[in-house]
Amino acid sequence: MLYLTESFSVMQSNASEGTSSMADQSAILEDVRRGMIPAHIYNDQEIFALEKGRIFGRAWVFVAHESEIARAGDYVVRRVLEDSFIVTRDESGEIRAHFNMCLHRGMQVCRAEMGNASHFRCPYHGWSYRNDGRIVGLPFHQDAYGGEAGFKRKGQRLLPAPSLDSHNGMIFISLDPDAPPLREYLGDFAFYLDYYTKQSPSGIELRGPQRWRVKANWKIGAENFAGDMYHTPQTHTSVVEIGLFREPKAEKRKDGATYWAGNGGGTTYKLPEGDLDERLRYVGYPQEMIERMKTSWSAEQRKVVGEDGFMISAASVFPNLSFVHNWPRVAESDDVLPFISVRQWQPISENETEVLSWFAVDAEAPEEFKALSYKAYLMCFGSTGMFEQDDVENWVSLTNTAAGSMARRLRLNSRMGILADDTEVAPALTGEQFAGPGSARVGYSEYNQRALLSRWADHLELPITAAVARDIGGQDEVVPALEHLPSEDTAEVTGA
Ligand code: FES
Ligand SMILES: [Fe+2]
């Protein structure tokens, strides 16, 4: 049997070496909930061991967008931490996520990162699988196993991801077979997700991902994108100085609002006076795209931009998916051009993160817009993007500093926006001022970082139940009934 073995026991090590006991862990969660963040959580092996099981063993994790696997047989290989999955569209058009481990000796079945294949053949001994996961080729089945009597091939398939769901074409998986429906998990954040992923009935298409590793803890980027408007005037001064942005001063960010709704939250910019059309034109959208946005968005979604005057910028969905929307100058003129990027903070360890960064654009956008928007994305948030470089240096340095013994003597103040007695520095906006769901406030605050880390604490507190393992090829197991099975080991292997 195989179990998810993480538990509090990993926390019960030597306190004199600075490691945590169970009681320490409760104190950590308590501190986080009151906005005082034990600095070592940004570089702590034991905390990371808990995060692996209790967060990434349970939460919905983004793996791909449907546009990346548009045709039958298209696949991408994506991970949830160490677990590799083949996310594919099978011959009947159904989207599946197969655990990328051969049922024979456990070799990784598909080693390419993306492609198109009707079957996947394991490089080790040559077992092959249809792209719906069913085993189809088992060399020397009769000679080696004695046929079905020895190894029951019928009904065997690559292990599916325990839960799979999608919203606006965004495909997520969860390692928890009892995960709530994705829409329920997203909650009211789905309202804001539409600004990034539903600008027309066709939705977005993705290009990428660019992938790179940074020596920083995964939570830092997620927190930053969720609500850190406060860093812009300092960290990104040079981007404003060289005129990449039309906004004259980075501190204009304080006029924007942050919002938190459901399982995610983000930041906005305050737009100059105008109606919906004028404001969307201000950030660089051509009229034909504006017309489609107007028919794709609800009255409330239109009001946030058109009447309340807030335009979405960065956002994060717990645990590790972020978005950014911005509108830099892409040429020596006053014209700006908006771009959207989808980004995942894939943890490698407590002090290293793989960033997966996609360019996203409305599928119905004119080709010229797509080309310029891609350029805008690369200038700002691609692997060489100017914002990217500014941000990451902070995050790497923070992670390094969090590793030592002194960081264990420090609780960082993440209470911006509330006074000592928990009253608010600025009140939440009313429904008249902000038509979106959740709670929104103008100005600098750390409500969103606290909300994200509160969910982190909620997950860490809840033990995870042991996963059930099953025998492969045994005679007694209950296997799912399949309508047609291939009769022999003769499938042609066309890829991977
Ligand atoms: S491990 Fe895949 S065929 Fe043997
Ligand atoms: Fe930044």
Into which percent range does the helicity of residues fall?
25-40%
CATH architecture title of the largest domain: Alpha-Beta Complex
* Neighbour order of strands in the largest sheet: 12-18-17-16-15-14-13-20
Average pLDDT, all residues: 91
> Shape from CA axes?
globular
Q: How many beta-strand elements? A: 20
Residue share in β-strands: 15-25%
Number of domains: 2
How would you characterize the overall build of this protein?
- It is a single chain.
- The chain is α+β, with helices and mostly antiparallel strands and 496 residues long.
- The protein has 2 domains: 61-165, Rieske [2Fe-2S] iron-sulphur domain (Rieske Iron-sulfur Protein, 3-layer Sandwich), CATH 2.102.10.10; 188-459, Naphthalene 1,2-dioxygenase Alpha Subunit, Chain A, domain 1.
- It is 26% helix and 23% strand.
- It is built from 14 helices and 20 strands.
- The chain has an 8-stranded antiparallel sheet, with helices on both faces. Strands 5-4-3-6 form a 4-stranded antiparallel sheet, with no helix packed on it. A 3-stranded antiparallel sheet has the order 2-11-10, with no helix packed on it.
- The longest helix has 16 residues, at 386-401.
- It is globular and about 75 Å long.
- The structure holds FE2/S2 (inorganic) cluster and fe (ii) ion.
Keywords for this entry:
binds fe (ii) ion, 14 helices, single chain, disordered N terminus, Rieske Iron-sulfur Protein, Naphthalene 1,2-dioxygenase Alpha Subunit, Chain A, domain 1, binds FE2/S2 (inorganic) cluster, 20 strands, four-stranded antiparallel sheet, 496 residues, eight-stranded antiparallel sheet, alpha+beta
